[in-house]
Design goal:
6-stranded mixed β-sheet; 403 residues; D-Maltodextrin-Binding Protein, domain 2; single chain; 38% helix; globular; 18 helices
Length: 403
């Protein structure tokens, strides 16, 4: 299968995953330009007479080459979108978070998976009309380090890469550093004596080569880049992020708000397709790489390891909460309100190389309902046998964080 690629030059953004002030203005401009074109609306009478899927047209999917995108890719590969009357084009692969964000704002793609903190930034800082319609997965990331590093304390004086400032990866890494008495620095050289750790942003694909070349001491990122370091013998897992923040979301499925408002049947069909793919992934972990290798450039061995390898005896120190009975990555669509609220609180504690005052303006009581369309996932799960099919016993929970 041929990958559809979107070049960085096409979208005018840097490779380094930083939605800084300049990049943010580009996203806002892209969204404004798309809005001035005006939606191609039918007259009310014509719209009522036209089936919802014909009004929807052909949707364009955007993704990064990480296992977080697996539900979207499996839904395409297994024909779930088609079965649910959603016509989709061949998914387009992007190399950086800013490039996919701008393409989404410019209406060059319609359904994307985004880091949830990035989606928050688009909604509450850039004021873009984005809605989260489902979680893509839970957990699925890790802190990978050089082989001579055996504890978080050993990171003092070292440089660690994150994929994006506004990411769960940055949040959880800084939780671990604070717990171990280490301080973050974003400039200059880190100092072991002063217990500082320097954080830099790198795109996921550059992280393993940088670790192998000893340009960094480690990185925290989505799979399969952690498994890739293991398979290639260049690094090891220091801690799984899902062992720090239980069942945390990383990437979420995002559409424009006008789709949810004007065509709710289409929004439901999209989430139905994603939930079907998540259920398939849960039941077919061992051979899922046979499907994903047609979309992801990494070796199937790394993809398979990322989906399956999470045994206590293999990771005696990387897994410190075995009673949670987690997986390395899990798949379920329901977006818990408690997570949205706690994520905003934790982001306020997280250092970024940017002005993050916009986080203080978010109303914690209303943010989830302004940002997330929760009912779609609940209905999708009910169609597939209920929440227990996805390992859920309740649609409310308390967030558990143990760094």
């Amino acid at each position: 299968m041929t990958h559809n690629h979107a070049s960085l030059s096409e979208f005018g953004l840097n490779e380094y995953g930083l939605l800084d002030r300049r990049s943010l203005l580009k996203v806002v401009a892209a969204g404004t330009a798309a809005a001035t074109l005006g939606p191609e609306l039918l007259s009310p009478t014509a719209a009522e007479a036209t089936p919802w899927n014909e009004r929807l047209g052909t949707l364009k999917i955007g993704y990064l080459p990480i296992t977080d995108s697996a539900p979207l890719l499996v839904a395409h590969a297994n024909g779930y979108f088609e079965k649910n009357k959603v016509k989709v084009a061949q998914p387009t692969l992007f190399r950086s978070w800013p490039s996919i964000a701008e393409a989404f704002a410019a209406k060059q793609v319609d359904v994307v998976h985004l880091l949830m903190p990035l989606a928050l930034q688009l909604r509450f800082e850039a004021k873009q009309d984005v809605r989260v319609i489902s979680w893509n997965h839970t957990d699925g990331s890790a802190v990978t380090v050089a082989k001579d590093i055996n504890s978080v304390a050993d990171l003092a004086g070292k440089t660690i890469a994150v994929p994006f400032w506004y990411s769960i990866h940055n949040v959880i890494l800084q939780q671990l550093l604070r717990k171990n008495g280490l301080k973050v620095t974003l400039a200059g050289e880190p100092s072991a004596a002063n217990k500082t750790v320097k954080l830099v942003v790198l795109p996921p694909s550059e992280m393993p080569p940088a670790l192998a070349a000893k340009q960094i001491a480690g990185y925290v990122v989505a799979e399969p880049f952690n498994a890739l370091a293991e398979v290639n013998g260049i690094g090891k897992i220091l801690r799984f992020t899902g062992d720090v923040w239980r069942d945390h979301a990383c990437c979420v499925t995002v559409v424009r708000g006008d789709l949810v408002r004007s065509n709710p049947l289409a929004a439901q069909a999209i989430v139905d397709s994603i939930a079907q793919a998540q259920l398939w992934l849960t039941k077919n972990r061992a051979n899922a790489s046979d499907v994903l290798k047609n979309y992801l450039p990494q070796a199937p061995a790394a993809i398979t390891k990322a989906l399956n390898s999470y045994a206590q005896n293999e990771y005696p120190t990387a897994i410190q909460n075995p009673a949670w009975l987690s997986e390395r990555i899990s798949f379920q669509p329901y977006p818990f309100a408690s997570y949205t609220t706690e994520l905003i609180k934790q982001l306020r504690l997280t250092r970024v190389d940017d002005d993050n005052q916009w986080l203080q303006t978010i109303n914690l009581r209303t943010a989830h309902n302004e940002f997330v369309a929760s009912g779609l996932a609940e209905r999708a799960m009910n169609k597939l046998g209920g929440r227990r099919q996805f390992g859920l016993t309740s649609l409310t929970r308390r967030e558990t964080i143990r760094p």
